Amino acid sequence: xxxxxxxxxxxxxxxxxxxxxxxxxxxxxxxxxxxxxxxxxxxxxxxxxxxxxxxxxxxxxxxxxxxxxxxxxxxxxxxxxxxxxxxxxxxxxxxxxxxxxxxxxxxxxxxxxxxxxxxxxxxxxxxxxxxxxxxxxxxxxxxxxxxxxxxxxxxxxxxxxxxxxxxxxxxxxxxxxxxxxxxxxxxxxxxxxxxxxxxxxxxxxxxxxxxxxxxxxxxxxxxxxxxxxxxxxxxxxxxxxxxxxxxxxxxxxxxxxxxxxxxxxxxxxxxxxxxxxxxxxxxxxxxxxxxxxxxxxxxxxxxxxxxxxxxxxxxxx
Length: 317
What we know:
Blueprint: H1 11-19, E1 24-26, E2 33-37, H2 41-51, E3 60-62, H3 69-72, H4 78-87, E4 92-97, H5 104-107, E5 112-116, H6 121-130, E6 134-135, H7 150-157, E7 163-164, E8 177-180, E9 187-190, H8 196-203, E10 208-209, E11 231-234, E12 247-251, E13 263-266, H9 271-286, E14 292-296, H10 305-314
Parallel strand pairs: 1-7, 3-5, 4-8, 9-10, 11-14, 12-13, 12-14
Antiparallel strand pairs: 1-2, 2-6, 3-6, 4-5, 8-9
Helix pairs in contact: 1-6
């Protein structure tokens, strides 16, 4: 593995690695992705091996411009073009019917493909110079906390990735919103920075919640984004009853005087700042030597939907 180099973005080297079937971790505005040439089945299979990712779990293909949609999707409905025009480059993945020649190795056997145009200068330059699609789930072991810095990637994957591009901490910090447009109505498969209200304002219709016939999508398993230590959500009005001695805490309140927990992180009350710092905070709590991580439940309002989704999947109860 070529170690990450702060302040260095060896794009040409990364392109060469991808073209020879290697793996490149690269930053996006959401989290770091583990990238491979999306047209190379052996390279994508290596992503699955390195991550320990189940074969039936699809990956998102990152593209460099909207004109590449038809390369990967056989149908691009008007709603997809409206959302792409409004939110790309950005933290939105569109699930469309896959084009002929797009293999099961990308889609987990589904007849759909997830596509995204990320909004990060390193990712965009990498995609521009590579010229093709890059399959890129998060650059970590499957089901664990996603990486938002190059060091997180190095800590998680070490020599299993050929090159890490260091683009600094991710601006958004949680994964993209995923919208299914492969059927006769828009369906929200995963919440993210782009909200249901944002999508509704663009399409003139509110996306429906995920249903049993929805295609499988990344990050939607019941257990995901999980630290190694058990994580438990505690309602604010039950906080005192939820306390334990050898615990690590993420709470909106200040650490009480005399508290002897392993680590206490006072969380921001702004939902976007909370999301940006969430995975870094969970990693710090996980490494604190605690027996359990306690997280104070965020508000139930719409602006916290994506954070609540990640915490619910990371938790044990």
